[in-house]
Design brief:
The chain is of the alpha+beta class. The chain is built from six helices and 21 strands. The protein is globular and about 55 Å long.
Length: 320
């Protein structure tokens, strides 16, 4: 990782937009994070491919979606942050195939598919865009990207455009094996048929269920920790079962726990929220404190679902 700040003059020419010292707090749902050396918003896939091909290998890149599942640390990100926009948000439906650009919002793809009588309703309540959904194998109410994904289009760090079958991504719970440094530019899904009115009604039901149980009007990044899998409360093989992260947090007495402006939501204790003025350091430190106290209470070590990236240049915090 480079330590010196980059300047626009150090980079290849582009048709899109390059911005120096861009405040990433403006782009994350938690509204925290230091600046990116450079924010690159490519005009289209060719602009992105040309840029990556000409960019010196030692300069790191970080593809960033809409910042819905991300903590950018207070020191910001060195190198180039790549954020896709209008040239990457198209949606096209061809029979049972739905083609979506990486910048297309998950909810928008679900709605467009439903209008065409195709069922991708599980995407409706997932915050974020298609590129992030693929990378994290996002899912909701028992359905995941892996259940519908056919292939993705991506541009590698060397500027090569590749089509990658879903089977090659090894999609698993909240994970994928996308090549290091590649930028997803689009995805193709196979969607089952459905009645448009019935699909629309189901999505409204999903939204109501989500809003009743999650702090959707708060500054959050969705679920903070992955659900623990394969836990046995007795040690017997026949007692292995999956647990919910919110339940083990609640059992440890951490619903509503606070650190500065950071809080575990009183409404849903697996949601880390910025109540106003929180730093990235406070949010991450509260999460680590929760992990430690859950472990002390139950022996379960929670794993972060929120991605945490960037440099720490402020002192950390300890204790609730």
């Amino acid at each position: 990782m480079t330590t010196a700040r980059l300047a626009i003059d150090d980079l290849p020419r582009v048709r899109g937009r390059l911005t120096a010292d861009y405040p990433l707090s403006d782009l994350t749902w938690l509204r925290v994070g230091g600046p990116a050396d450079i924010l690159f918003q490519p005009a289209d896939p060719q602009d992105l491919a040309d840029f990556l091909r000409a960019l010196p290998e030692e300069i790191p890149v970080f593809p960033m979606g809409v910042g819905s599942n991300l903590i950018v640390r207070d020191g910001g990100l060195r190198g180039v942050v790549i954020r896709l926009g209008r040239g990457f948000n198209g949606i096209a439906i061809d029979g049972d195939l739905v083609h979506a650009g990486a910048a297309a919002l998950d909810a928008h793809v679900a709605r467009k598919a439903a209008e065409a009588g195709r069922d991708l309703t599980f995407l409706r309540t997932i915050p974020g865009a298609i590129g992030g959904a693929v990378r994290m194998n996002a899912g909701c109410y028992g359905r995941y990207v892996a259940d519908a994904l056919v292939e993705v289009t991506a541009i590698t760090r060397s500027g090569e455009t590749r089509t990658i079958p879903a089977a090659d991504l090894n999609l698993a719970y909240r994970s994928s094996d996308l090549p290091e440094g590649c930028v997803v530019t689009g995805a193709t899904f196979r969607a089952e048929p459905g009645d448009p009115d019935a699909l629309a009604a189901w999505m409204e039901e999903q939204l109501a269920r989500r809003d009743a149980t999650q702090p959707t009007r708060e500054r959050s990044a969705g679920s903070t920790f992955r659900n623990p899998a394969g836990h046995s409360s007795t040690g017997r093989a026949d007692d292995v079962h999956d647990l919910k992260a919110w339940k083990v947090i609640d059992d440890a007495g951490l619903r509503g726990a606070r650190l500065g402006g950071a809080q575990m939501s009183p409404k849903h204790p697996n949601f880390l929220v910025n109540t106003g003025g929180a730093t990235a350091a406070e949010l991450e430190a509260l999460g680590e404190d929760v992990r430690e106290k859950v472990f002390q209470n139950s022996g379960i070590r929670l794993e972060w679902e929120i991605r945490r990236v960037g440099a720490t240049d402020l002192p950390g915090h300890n204790g609730l």
